[in-house]
Structures are given as structure tokens and as C-alpha cells.
Prior knowledge:
Blueprint (H helix, E strand, L loop, with lengths): L1 H21 L1 H5 L4 H17 L9 H10 L5 E5 L7 H4 L7 E5 L7 H13 L4 E7 L3 H7 L8 H6 L2 H10 L5 H23 L1 H9 L3 E7 L6 E5 L1
Parallel strand pairs: 1-2, 1-3, 3-4
Antiparallel strand pairs: 4-5
Helix pairs in contact: 9-10
Amino acid sequence: xxxxxxxxxxxxxxxxxxxxxxxxxxxxxxxxxxxxxxxxxxxxxxxxxxxxxxxxxxxxxxxxxxxxxxxxxxxxxxxxxxxxxxxxxxxxxxxxxxxxxxxxxxxxxxxxxxxxxxxxxxxxxxxxxxxxxxxxxxxxxxxxxxxxxxxxxxxxxxxxxxxxxxxxxxxxxxxxxxxxxxxxxxxxxxxxxxxxxxxxxxxxxxxxxxxxxxxxxxxxxxxxxxxx
Length: 228
């Protein structure tokens, strides 16, 4: 009798898991920007507390995505820094987040094209531009470190944020200055995306999509939201 009860409970748990997995892609299609933001905030809270659940990382989820295609609920533009992985930071899994990552978290034609693909073709309702604290690349740009090759062009894209930060916050030095430049750069990237992508701007204005700025704290693991 006891064995029967145990087997019944296990069967019920497995059935629930299968139903949840089968509905993953379908439920993602119904999410709006507000719901997507809630999922990101809840996931980051779990990550920060060290209680990540690593959802949607099963073999079943992988097979569903292979057959049905991707349907992410958020697009995140972030740095390529090895300490900054959006999927881990927001405790999500396969097919949940469309990530656009590049050193310095700056805007170029490839970045804009990737964002347009995710927001227009995949119709993700939420776009997050996320910088991070203690950026070594921003530090190099602030300190005027000489770089060779393509890095020179990339550092040049950070100059507007550096100049604006020094004008607005002339007393900042060291780490505080670097972190503030990261924040100003996020706001600049948001403006650049909307300024260069009229179709995305139209979706935001019509309420069909939402854009949010954020800063990831590499010390605490917390994401600080800067607003739209």
C-alpha cells in the first residue's frame, strides 16, 4: 500500500513537470512586457540569494525549441564580460532570453540589426540595456589607455558617455566615476537604439514593447533598474 502511494505521488510529480515543460513555449507567447520584467526581477532575486532553480534547461525543453523554434520573452543588450551572463543573472534557461553581447556594451550596426531581429521578427515585448559595475574596458577608456587594432574604435564609442559624466559629475573619481560612466552609457545606448530603429521606437510608443535600462552589480549580483 505504501509503495503504491509513493508511486502515485511520483507519477503525479512527473506528470506536472511534463505539463509545465510542454506549456513553456506556449506560455511565453502570451507574456507582455510587464510580466517579462517580473520574471527577470524574480530570477535575479533568486540568483542574488544563491537559490537559482535553472528553469527550462531540460532535454525536453531543448527538443521543443528545436522543433517549434525560439520565442524569447525578453531581449537583453549587455557587455561580453565573462562575469556578466544574463541567462545566469536572471536565472532563466533555453529559449527565454535573446542576448546581444559585445565588449563595452556599445551600439554598432551589428548590435542594431540583432536588436531589430529580436524585437521585430521574434516580437520580444521587453528590451533591456544592461551595463555593469567595475568595467575594465570603461576603466581603460577613462584612463586613456592606448589600445591597438579594433579596440581603438570601440573605446572611441565610449567617449560621449565619459565626457557627459565628467560634466554632470565633476567630483567623481576612480570606481565611482567608472560606474557612473557605465550608467550614462546605458542611457546613451537606449537613445541610440530608439534613434536608429524607428520601427522599435514605434512599438515602444504604441505600448507594444518596452525598453528598460539596468546596471548589474558585480559585487552583490543585484540588478538595479534605471527605468524606461
